Amino acid sequence: MTGTVVDAFRAEADALGHAASRWAERDWARPTRCAPWRVRELFAHVRITLGRLPGMLAEAAPERAEVSAAAYYRPDHRFSPETDAARIRLAQDQAPGLDVRDFRGFATALADRCAAEPPDRVVRTRHGDAMLLTDFLTTRVVELAVHGLDLADALDRPAWLTPPAAGVVLSLLFGRPAADLPGPPDRLLREATGRAPVTLDLTGLRPLTLG
Q1: Is the pTM of this model over 0.85?
Q2: Is residue 201 situated within a structural domain?
Q3: How many domains would you assign to the chain?
Q4: Burial, 132: exposed, middle or buried (Cβ in 10 Å; 0-12, 13-18, 19+)?
Q5: Residue 211 has pLDDT above 70, yes or no
């Protein structure tokens, strides 16, 4: 599998890993908008969401894809209070043992493994969805990009959103290229996901249910 989504995943994960490698210990304890998580727990959550990929690729592929990247974010049990509570606890449990030093290598290995898969590879998510790997990887780019903004804002740092990731996520949200959309991509993504007051033209936005 080659092309835009793998490139975006690789670029955005590397940018996050590079940024995180420079944070001081006090930075990791800063609160985020994703309460009750602090920076360390939110970073742990992102790593957890990426870490499910190897197990998915190790399983037999479903016969066909049934769910798109956009449909993955439908408002069902995956974003219920019970699921959210379990998601919160898992990140809190794993955060204390988090080793940021391996993140860039970990993400690079994941990107390489995905790139080696055929373009029609289908995987099954932990929620039971049969998806094209390219579509599931799109959802991982969403995790990296959106939570990357959450982390940058929590630390009062400039956003490190990469052009490839912005292109993938904004295309998912609006159905057209980022170059055709108004405003800086990081501002547009914040507004489109409810992370900032709306000041830009969001015509065509297809809102996603995000946990």
Answers
A1: yes
A2: no
A3: 1
A4: buried
A5: no
